[in-house]
């Protein structure tokens, strides 16, 4: 539906970024990377729930060395997030990570950036140049201030540094906490380079405000064809970030599959606690790539129409819901059984499809 911006393609392990590849969803683990068991468990849970790429904080040598074990026990691409010490980037590469994220402005000088770039080049590992408004380097600040242009120029100067090493395995991000600034920066950057872009609104806040900010910032850019991989940044679990990221892609028709939940806003006609039913079902929906439509509707006005169109749905009545499956009404269910019955029917449909 949207014409995607043409970019170079880079490979993060087996996952392509840019060059027309499907847009990927990534997050950052919130465990201590040195705690291998907890980090592996979190990565596996994220993968089961549709996450494509996980980034890990590497604050010290112990964390860089732990990456080797984590890599051995997981299967999706892992990106090492490095600040301040280029030697950690080199150790992370030796541990087998699939990508690096650095802000070259805080690595401690050009020679150190060159050194880690050479190590990444030898292993054909991509580097994301991740520039944030909050950590622009002094030279850029004195010339441009904390502005959109400053953000973009900072990224471009780092790109030029890597290119001078004959390295072009690059992904770029230019994040700000302001949605308009983020949008403007990515638009500007997209005009200037053909590298794939990692989108995100940084430090977007808690799940409520952060979801809105991320959806508007990331969604606006994606609708313009800009962006190749996304990370929703929330003060919440990484699972929540992935759920929001996947939903942004689904809402724009950029990712198919999975369960689409339709529920009405309710009004004075609704005679069941529809909000509780919809929330409980949403929280317990199984992770699947199968396309399935579930409708949870409050009454007979729009309920039967939407529920009939869905694979499974209910139209609320007085203390109950009329259950529809594949276009047919199959019975009345008391309100307290609605969640269980809907989830059971979803499970049955998924099992039936597996057997086909
Ligand atoms: Fe109101 Fe019924 Fe429409 Fe829901 S489906 S918003 S309860 S009229």
UniProtKB/TrEMBL annotation:
Top-level EC class as recorded in UniProt: oxidoreductase
A biological-process GO annotation: isopentenyl diphosphate biosynthetic process, methylerythritol 4-phosphate pathway
InterPro entries: Dihydropteroate_synth-like_sf, IspG_bac, IspG_bac-typ, IspG_C, IspG_TIM, NO2/SO3_Rdtase_4Fe4S_sf
Cofactors, names only: [4Fe-4S] cluster
Domain IspG TIM-barrel, first and last residues per copy: 7-245
Keywords: 4Fe-4S, Iron, Iron-sulfur, Isoprene biosynthesis, Metal-binding, Oxidoreductase
Record: residues binding [4Fe-4S] cluster: 264, 267, 299, 306
Molecular function in Gene Ontology: 4 iron, 4 sulfur cluster binding; 4-hydroxy-3-methylbut-2-en-1-yl diphosphate synthase activity (ferredoxin); 4-hydroxy-3-methylbut-2-enyl-diphosphate synthase activity (flavodoxin); iron ion binding
Pathway it works in: Isoprenoid biosynthesis; isopentenyl diphosphate biosynthesis via DXP pathway; isopentenyl diphosphate from 1-deoxy-D-xylulose 5-phosphate: step 5/6
Location of the IspG C-terminal domain: 260-348
Chemical reaction(s) catalysed: (2E)-4-hydroxy-3-methylbut-2-enyl diphosphate + oxidized [flavodoxin] + H2O + 2 H(+) = 2-C-methyl-D-erythritol 2,4-cyclic diphosphate + reduced [flavodoxin]
Cofactor note (record): Binds 1 [4Fe-4S] cluster.
EC assignment: 1.17.7.3
Assigned protein family: Belongs to the IspG family.
Name of the protein described by the UniProt record: 4-hydroxy-3-methylbut-2-en-1-yl diphosphate synthase (flavodoxin)
Species this chain originates from: Thermacetogenium phaeum (strain ATCC BAA-254 / DSM 26808 / PB)
Lineage of source species: Bacteria, Bacillati, Bacillota, Clostridia, Thermoanaerobacterales
